[in-house]
Amino acid sequence: MKKELKKQVGVIRVSNPVGLLPRKTWNVLLVNAYDELLSKEEHTISIQTLSETVGFNSKDVATLKKSLQKLQTTIVEWDVGGQSESKGVSFKEFSSVQMLGGFKVKSGTITYRYDKCLKEVLYNPIMYQKIGIAQQKVFNTSYGLYLWENCLRYINVGSTGFSTTEEWRKLLGATVKSYDVYKDFKKHVLTPAINEINKLTNIFITLKTRRTGRKITHIGFDVEENKQELLPISDGLLDIKNLKVIKLQMCKQ
Fold this sequence. Notes:
The chain has 253 residues and is an alpha+beta fold. It has helices at residues 20-33, 47-54, 61-73, 116-123, 133-136, 142-152, 165-172, 182-200, 237-252, and strands at residues 4-8, 43-46, 103-106, 109-112, 128-132, 163-164, 203-212, 215-225.
């Protein structure tokens, strides 16, 4: 089991209102299924392993189920800004494809699946970045996690470049009308997310703005390696690997 998730940029640049726990959960479910994504229709993971990997109380099964239902029922806009499409991967046909297909929870185990066309894109990404599963555990806000994912791949470039404030609001799931006002968007979304990233993660980002007339219409981020010493984080993936090995040994007996 890999400690990093090879994640298609089109599913990172997604208008994602699902929230913090569902986003963490989706990343872990994908890395758990990745090696067998195309060869198996369904995948399984224990509630305990999933909970430990995302940093969640495994006894609160009801909340975990709600997160899975959120992934299953929320229609999102994939590939915001069309970066994957520019490299030959179109998400236009995915307008009604949810982040997660069917699932069931029974006897401490979650069984889940993905839409077929989505699996093919997830497994064979042309543009991708690696998401550290351990690193995502430190986040306490969805805005911080979303912003981190969308800045991470620019660490070698040094900058995300500029995109419209509307596009960034979609990427961060901050689309409520009150954030139409930039100063409110900055105060309640950008500043807390930037502080969380710079304090807790492997990158350090700096906000840049561009005005059209007197109005801030575009923002971007300078991105560099965060050289401060970070606390070691258990990713929980060794538990996933060990569980699969145990199952295999049991089948051979």
